[in-house]
Amino acid sequence: MLEYVRKYRDGEIMGQNIDNFKRGTAEMLVLYLLSKEDLYGYQITQSFAEKSGGVYTMLEGSLYPILYRLTEAGYISDYTKQVGKRRTRRYYHLEDAGREYYKVILSEYDSIIGSIDRILDR
Questions:
Q1: For residues 66 and 27, is the Cβ–Cβ distance under 8 A?
Q2: Cβ(92)–Cβ(39) under 8 Å?
Q3: To 5 degrees, how large is the angle CA 70–CA 17–CA 55?
Q4: What are phi and psi for residue 37, nearest 5 degrees?
């Protein structure tokens, strides 16, 4: 028990909890951002950082597996757009199936958060 308290005090446990929470919400947040407009990967990572005040960062190495999974499931699609003479960017677009999926996971999220708030008497 003392080891757990030391790890929590030193930020090890807190860091793990935050990472787990981020992983659990990342897909939902990506879908939300894409519901506003088509974005390329770097824009998505920047939106996470900007909108969260730097608290919730998404590394591109973590983002792309999510984008690939959502693409394979048919929730989003991608297309390439030329920017400049030799450069292209891959944009991601939310499909109708993705909008429905987003509604489902947002509802589940709201339900869980509401339950937690009730347990905490908030």
A1: yes
A2: yes
A3: 75
A4: -170, 160
What does the pLDDT read at residue 20? 57
Helices within 1-122 (DSSP H only) = 2-9, 12-36, 41-51, 60-72, 96-119
Calculate helix-pair angle for 96-119, 12-36, nearest 10 degrees. Answer: 140
Query: What is the DSSP-derived secondary structure letter of residue 34?
Result: H
Does the CA dihedral 65-68-73-75 come out positive or negative?
positive
Terminal CA-CA length for the chain: 28
- The CB density around residue 35, as the number of other CB atoms within 10 Å, is 12
Query: Among all chains, which residue has been given the structure tokens 């999974």?
Result: 69
More confident residue, 16 or 88: 88
Q: Which residues, 6+ apart, have CB-to-CB distance to 7 below 8 Å?
A: 13
Mean pLDDT computed over 96-112: 94
Pick the more confident residue, 18 or 81.
81
